[in-house]
Amino acid sequence: MGKTKKYCYGLCLLISVAINILFSINLYVGEGQWGEKKHEDSCQPVLSWSEKAAAEAEAVAAISCSGHGRAYVDGLVFEGQPVCECFDCYGGSDCSELSPECFADADSGDPVFLEPFWMQHATESAVVISGWHRMSYRYADYTTMSKELENYIHKIHLLVGNAVTEGRYIVFGIGSTQLLNAAVYALSSNKTSSPSNVLASIPFYPMYKEQTTFFNSESFEFEGDTYSWQSNNSTNNIDVIEFVTSPNNPDGELKKSVLGGKTIYDHAYYWPHFTQITGPSDHDLMIFTLSKLTGHAGTRFGWAVIKDKDIYEKVLNYISIADLGISKDTQLRVLKLLKVAVEGYGKPLFEFAYNTMRERWDRLTSVLSKSTRFSIQKRHPLHCNFFNETRLASPAYAWVKCEREEDDDCGVVLEAGKIIGRAGSIFSAKDRYTRLSLIKSQYDFELLLKRLTELVSHENGSIATM
Amino acid sequence: MGKTKKYCYGLCLLISVAINILFSINLYVGEGQWGEKKHEDSCQPVLSWSEKAAAEAEAVAAISCSGHGRAYVDGLVFEGQPVCECFDCYGGSDCSELSPECFADADSGDPVFLEPFWMQHATESAVVISGWHRMSYRYADYTTMSKELENYIHKIHLLVGNAVTEGRYIVFGIGSTQLLNAAVYALSSNKTSSPSNVLASIPFYPMYKEQTTFFNSESFEFEGDTYSWQSNNSTNNIDVIEFVTSPNNPDGELKKSVLGGKTIYDHAYYWPHFTQITGPSDHDLMIFTLSKLTGHAGTRFGWAVIKDKDIYEKVLNYISIADLGISKDTQLRVLKLLKVAVEGYGKPLFEFAYNTMRERWDRLTSVLSKSTRFSIQKRHPLHCNFFNETRLASPAYAWVKCEREEDDDCGVVLEAGKIIGRAGSIFSAKDRYTRLSLIKSQYDFELLLKRLTELVSHENGSIATM
């Protein structure tokens, strides 16, 4: 029995010591050294100088503002953190206070409808800019334009099939806005005794006239509506520059040059979510904007696609003299956004965008189909090469017409129904027309539809009240 | 003896079991559960959507390019990563190949001398921009300018004491470049029969003439040198707009208005690292640029400080019509950079910048003091309010004059010594003068000094060879 007890002690001791050894091995292998934790891969501190900025951005993005606003890293600061910037009709420090009777603001072409897409693609679309990123005036090739970004401009056009860019020159601008005027300068006459006549077809985007008039150059004059001018003049010996917006702002119509001479094609809306892509546009001077492609209006980025080298150099010269080239921070950001835009052959972005626009048009036409007081532009089925099917367009704006004879100021009629649009006269058309923006946030659209539904439902009531 | 052995076994077993218990406690406490590692705070995954972009930025920043170049996130891509963009005189895929006979390029006012400061302040100066950052055309207050950034513009001026901004209006532009022309438009005559005469004192920054001529408005004309114009004209009934650059580009002189009428003060260089701050500038229209304050020329950001409301609205209108406001990505980045600039009462930034410039001037004057062939502008001690001492200025450029009668084209002389400068005639002065940039990288400056030293050392040799 004593021997058994001794064997038990011995065996237990052996087992216990073996366990000691196992624990020790586990401790040594599981830690870098004795007493120091070894980090697994997911624990590795992987970031250094960028971590603080990244954490700050994420913390600010996580501020919910009751779901009715946004906080931004560069917002005004209150009690140590950026304030909530509330959506229309909401207020209070956390945007929780609704003003139920507020107006539906459908005035601006602010393309915020794409914001949800970018929030869903947060990882791929984030960009980190170091404090020393591209401090120089110029890129390595001595230009003020990013070659890599240029490559992606070519890519997106090839993918969408909406413009011929091969062998063409590209110039970047602060939005397409800046390039519109650059194009006018580039195309305009050298003879100050006979300045170029700048024209656009009513209804047209007012900036063409505003800019041309404002810059007040000896080389050009804004002369109004193309058709009217054509009726009264011959282009023989008269220098003309024609703006053609296709699809048009405000009515979404696909348009061509009337005069067939020097033409600036404004293709801001020539993307599959607004209109059918009938083929790659192949004109001498075409202008596009990021605002209506990805929705980043605040970034201020546009580009011109130019055939003729001489015109290209003039447009480039304009940008150089106006501002020594556009921000390199902007160009980096745009590159990031376009990399996301071209993923999956563009389908994720354009399907999201198109589905949003299509649903809005379906719901809008449904509401207005019940109206005899208001009409909107007709849409006709056309084949879209990008989506490879015949479909209706889904323009950025509804071009609303007040049909009753006494409603010659449609804006007033809509305003009485708590809707703010943009008057037809802004587009050199009659105020019987009003433009309503369909590209703002989902919240804005829902409110617009609510107000329109209310208005339409009152149509069979008293005419005098409205 | 047997009893002792039994006690030994017992004691050893007890000790061994106790150790096992300790190991077990350590394992349980040190891990969340049995077998699962518990993460220490430094291991906590703290980032989500921004991590990938942050890691990418850091990886690219870590590409050394042999210390003779930079890789950027938006650089052209080769074999999956951005290429090295080499400093002047270096080449090869890793920028390790030196061209020993290459020229010292001192032509451009590219303010890369501040890059090391920003690399040293990597954490505070990094910025992360989410994919949905400020997509709208407008800020919450419906303007196109960040209020928080405006606050920091006021802060930096208050801190440096170089401009009165309280109660003044601020307008942002794409670099000061854009604001120069905006100011001309804002100040110019409404009567096209008598356009405003735009003037600047030789030697002057060529952009004033280039822009005014290029935009070719009916409202203004560039009429040349202020002094010459003054000799031949009276300002009675003639509308004039005078550019005053102080400190001047190219010669660094502190200047005042000659005519005392409508004046645009270009204060691009009125910072303590270039000149003494003699007091806060208090003029009706003053223009500044980020390029020469923080070195971020590529960002394209400038601002105007305006007294008169009417002029302010005209400048704002210009920006609005030219491009619907400047990029919000740029404004966010600038805010980040200015937050760093104002830290420590601005001392870290301005001491770094000034010490760099002072050392360069000390070394330059030392080299050129041995020369009778080349002279540079005289500098006079003045009290600097910011650094609170009397000191010499350290201008951004050396305004070199070739003293020998036969050297009427100083550029040619310097070029023979493998130095590229900017000809005096670019500044409407004689080509006997050349501007040499002293604000490029340390590498560029060392090469410039080397070439100058070689040139000066040859002065006592054959005149015919040079």
Structure summarized in a few sentences:
Chain A is α/β, with parallel strands linked by helices and 466 residues long.
Question: Top keywords for this entry?
Answer:
homodimer, 466 residues, alpha/beta, 7-stranded mixed β-sheet, 4-stranded antiparallel β-sheet, 24 strands, disordered C terminus
Helix content of chain A: 25-40%
pLDDT < 50 stretches of chain A: 31-42, 462-466
Oligomer: homodimer
The radius of gyration over CA of chain A amounts to: 30 Å
Structural class of chain A: alpha/beta
Structure description:
Two copies of one chain form a homodimer. Chain A has 466 residues and is of the alpha/beta class. In chain A, 37% of the residues lie in helices and 18% in strands. The first copy, chain A, contains 14 helices and 24 strands. In chain A, the strands form eight sheets. A seven-stranded mixed β-sheet of chain A has the order 11-17-16-15-14-12-13. Chain A has a four-stranded antiparallel β-sheet with strand order 18-21-24-23, covered by helices on one side. In chain A, strands 1-2 form a two-stranded antiparallel ribbon. In chain A, helix 5 packs parallel to helix 11 (328-341), helix 6 (175-187) crosses helix 10 (309-323) and helix 12 packs parallel to helix 14. In chain A, 46% of the residues are buried. The model of chain A is unreliable at 31-42 and 462-466 (pLDDT under 50). At the A-B interface, helix 1, helix 2, strand 6, helix 3 and helix 4 of A face helix 1, helix 2, strand 6, helix 3 and helix 4 of B. Strand 10 (127-129) of chain A pairs antiparallel with strand 10 (127-129) of chain B.
